[in-house]
Amino acid sequence: MKQFLSLLFLFAIFLPLQAQEATLISKDELVTRARENNASLKIAHQDVMAAQADYRQTNAILLPTIGLTHTGIATTNPLLAFGSKLNQAILTPGDFDPTLLNDPRQIEDYATRIQIQQPLVNLDGLFQRKAAKAKLSATTLQSERTQQYLELELDKAYMELQLAYRTVAVLEKARETASENLRIAGNSFEKGYLQKSDVLAVEVRLTEIENQLQYAKSNILNASNQLSVLMGEPDFALYQPSDSLTTRTTQSYEPTFSESRADIMAMASASSAYHQLHRADIMSFLPRLNAFGTYELHDDTAFAGAADGYYFGAELSWNILEGSKRFGKAQKSKAEYERSKLELEQYKAQSQVELNRANRMLQDAANNLKLTALALEQAKESLRIRSNRFEQGLEKTTDLLFAETQYAQKQLEYYSTVYRHNYAMAYVHFLTLE
User: Please, which residues have CB within 8 angstroms of residue 276's CB and are 6 or more apart in sequence?
Assistant: First the structure.
């Protein structure tokens, strides 16, 4: 009765997992789908687009500004009325009559104006343009680093899924072994070779394995959900890796830190942007030279333009003193530039420390992998010997259970070590990418 209730309980737990059909997925397919739909990559792309738009705005430093207006007025103002007639080229000698000049009749004037402004010398604007270009470079490099980090996360999540399936396979095999031991123990108990406590001990072991198996299958769902998030797919399907978790070949060389890494170069570009902004603030103390021109059409009828005229010229402007505003702005931009240089050096040092730590983690994992592989072989051989002796009634139940538990634990430890070793290799590769 107890066994029936236990099986019924496990059936209720595992039914949702079994009812959902697993979808095979490879590492390459995972990367391809993530590159198309991952939210972090889309956000990074939008950041690049925004930086490109900021840089495009600085074209105003080089290209002209052109405006078109059409205005209509009606006036009896003496000055405006006389000027409107003059602009329309309809002025006659009779219009110089003092009476008409002082008290003109209402006149309409419709003017179409094309205005052009062309920057000639604008040094602070040129350095602002360089700053925008450096910012675009930094954003692009950071987007590249985001993709590299995504690939690391994909590799990690895929290995977690492989480990989860490996764990389930180990525990299912352990459950089969425990069930067979329970059958043998039951037969031995009926023959009087074992006590009831020995049979209960085997049943407890079987229950422990089934409980561990429940958590292992939940980890499959957790890993599958994480893959769905990374791929930007909201269906949260159940995935199964197309290949099993195996040991990757350990690198024989010592990976070194490179300043050509995308995130390092991104910070360097950001620091360059602060430098250019500081230079722009310094150049704002100098005068500016701009050209301008206007072409006008006038008539007493809208959109007619019977008379035209133009004027053009150049303006040299120099804002000599603006209180202490520009001094303070230049001081602030210099402080921000100096801070960016310090942050870059600090980030390089931290990156070197992180790489050293990752190298040690990889070496430790490689050494631990050899030890766990050896321990696994020893546990397997010990279980084989004790199982044979138990079938012959020459081994204690507690010794068999200990050997069985130890073998399952060593299997799980081995595959966990394989996972840590492979992830350490992937992490070192991520830290040394250029």
Answer: 127, 128, 130, 131, 134
| In a domain? residue 146 | yes
Q: How far apart are CA 434 and CA 425, in angstroms?
A: 16
Give the number of domains in the chain. Answer: 1
Give the count of alpha carbons within 13 A of 264, CB side only. 18
CA pair distance 106, 203, nearest whole angstrom? 111
Residues in the chain: 434
- Residue 300 tokens, joined: 């007493």
pLDDT score at 319: 84
pLDDT of residue 205: 82
Identify the sign of the CA torsion 395, 397, 398, 404. Answer: positive
Query: Does residue 110 belong to any structural domain of this protein?
Result: no
Give me the pLDDT at residue 2, please: 42
Sheet harboring 307-317: ordered strands across? 65-75, 107-121, 288-299, 307-317
Helix (H) or strand (E) holding 285: none
Domain that residue 369 falls in: 2-66+122-287+322-431
DSSP letter, residue 43: H
Structure tokens at 250: 């350990």
Residues of the chain with pLDDT under 50: 1-17
Residue 304 maps to a domain: no
Q: State the CB neighbour count (10 A cutoff) for residue 320.
A: 6
Helical spans, DSSP H, in 76-122: 78-87, 98-102
* 241 falls within a domain: yes
Element at 75 (helix H, strand E): strand 65-75
DSSP state of 322: B
> What is the Cα–Cα distance from 64 to 213, expressed in whole angstroms?
72
